[in-house]
């Protein structure tokens, strides 16, 4: 892949008609900030100990080369006019989009492969002569990672790296804040029931209006959940997002809380089948059992953030399930109103019972009437 990275650098320089030194100088101005973005960066890449100039040059070379490669790949994928590559190019062509770019996209999600978007910002500033490219970079990266996602919010500044962009695309919309817990919720219930158990307790499932992981709510027995497509990349993506939230203090734990919630809700294939029937889970990995196995164990050693919006939903659902009337009503509905035939059988039984009571009353009244005469 290093060969393709160097090719992309040469193509970008040729189109920009600017020397490599300008790009290197621009990135060198934020070299310390870029080095600080990598936790545990080996001394071989830091300009700190011995041969400082040589090590700094190696680090800048890596940043510029990787940044140019990422720009060229995203431009090719978005249909940007990049016509100086051969039609049979292994990366920057239709063939590359089909067979190579998906693996590049997958590698971009790995927590250890994150490239600070500040690098792209500096490279674009030199190439275009404009310094205000933050929103352009955010849109470009999001369209490459999740083309169908909601447009990124404006005015929020440059994201940290591609994984941060991916997380933002899953958490768009207003952040819900949980109200203070009432006195009867002082001791939270740590058990999140499975989807089947909630259904038996009278909870109804509906798909949220958006696919944002923040769009989870419970109102009058209806639990609304965002739709999720479960495919071969789902576990990979969620685990990397959880790692990002764990390593970045202050980033929040919305994705982690969502995974915790879903992991506890999906225990068996029956839970997956129920959520699939409600169009909440779109299963593309095969059997429902495979989906249940995928979610199982992802939230090990994970806890919900106290007083989070999702924790409030958790309390509301458990409070609803503790009411016996809700269970009785659910049992009645599931037993006698599950199908038209069950309802007709119940209606016929009620009708016959009513007729029997009327006949009995009529017989008793007739008896007393005859006795008085």
TrEMBL record:
<dbReference type="InterPro" id="IPR004158">
    <property type="entry name" value="DUF247_pln"/>
</dbReference>
<dbReference type="Pfam" id="PF03140">
    <property type="entry name" value="DUF247"/>
</dbReference>
<keyword id="KW-0472">Membrane</keyword>
<keyword id="KW-0812">Transmembrane</keyword>
<feature type="transmembrane region" description="Helical">
    <location>
        <begin position="341"/>
        <end position="365"/>
    </location>
</feature>
<protein>
    <submittedName>
        <fullName>Uncharacterized protein</fullName>
    </submittedName>
</protein>
<keyword id="KW-1133">Transmembrane helix</keyword>
């Amino acid at each position: 892949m290093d060969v393709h990275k160097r090719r992309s650098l040469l193509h970008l320089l040729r189109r920009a008609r600017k020397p490599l030194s300008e790009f290197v100088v621009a990135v060198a101005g934020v070299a310390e900030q870029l080095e600080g973005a990598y936790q545990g960066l080996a001394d071989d890449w830091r300009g700190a100990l011995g041969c400082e100039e040589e090590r700094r040059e190696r680090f800048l070379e890596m940043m510029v080369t990787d940044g140019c490669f990422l720009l060229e790949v995203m431009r090719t994928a978005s249909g940007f006019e990049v016509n100086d590559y051969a039609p049979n190019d292994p990366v920057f062509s239709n063939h590359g989009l089909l067979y190579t770019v998906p693996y590049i996209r997958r590698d971009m999600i790995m927590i250890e492969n994150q490239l600070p978007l500040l690098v792209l910002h500096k490279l674009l500033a030199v190439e275009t002569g404009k310094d205000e490219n933050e929103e352009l970079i955010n849109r470009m990266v999001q369209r490459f990672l999740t083309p169908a996602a909601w447009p990124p919010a404006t005015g929020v500044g440059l994201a940290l790296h591609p994984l941060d962009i991916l997380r933002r695309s899953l958490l768009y919309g207003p952040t819900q804040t949980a109200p203070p817990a009432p006195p009867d919720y002082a001791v939270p219930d740590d058990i999140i029931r499975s989807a089947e158990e909630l259904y038996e307790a009278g909870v109804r499932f509906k798909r949220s209006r958006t696919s944002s992981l923040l769009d989870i709510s419970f109102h009058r027995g209806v639990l609304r959940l965002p739709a999720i497509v479960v495919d071969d990349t789902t576990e990979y993506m969620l685990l990397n997002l959880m790692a990002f939230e764990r390593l970045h203090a202050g980033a929040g734990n919305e994705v982690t809380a969502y995974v915790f919630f879903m992991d506890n809700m999906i225990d068996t294939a029956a839970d997956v089948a129920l959520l699939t029937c409600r169009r909440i889970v779109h299963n593309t990995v095969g059997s429902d059992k495979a989906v249940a196995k995928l979610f199982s164990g992802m939230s090990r050693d994970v806890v919900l953030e106290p007083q989070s919006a999702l924790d409030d939903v958790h309390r509301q659902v458990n409070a609803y399930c503790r009411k016996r009337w809700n269970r009785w009503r659910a049992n009645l509905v599931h037993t006698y109103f599950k199908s038209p035939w069950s309802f007709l059988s119940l209606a016929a039984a009620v009708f016959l019972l009513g007729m029997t009571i009327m006949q009995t009353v009529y017989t008793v009244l007739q008896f007393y009437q005859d006795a008085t005469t």
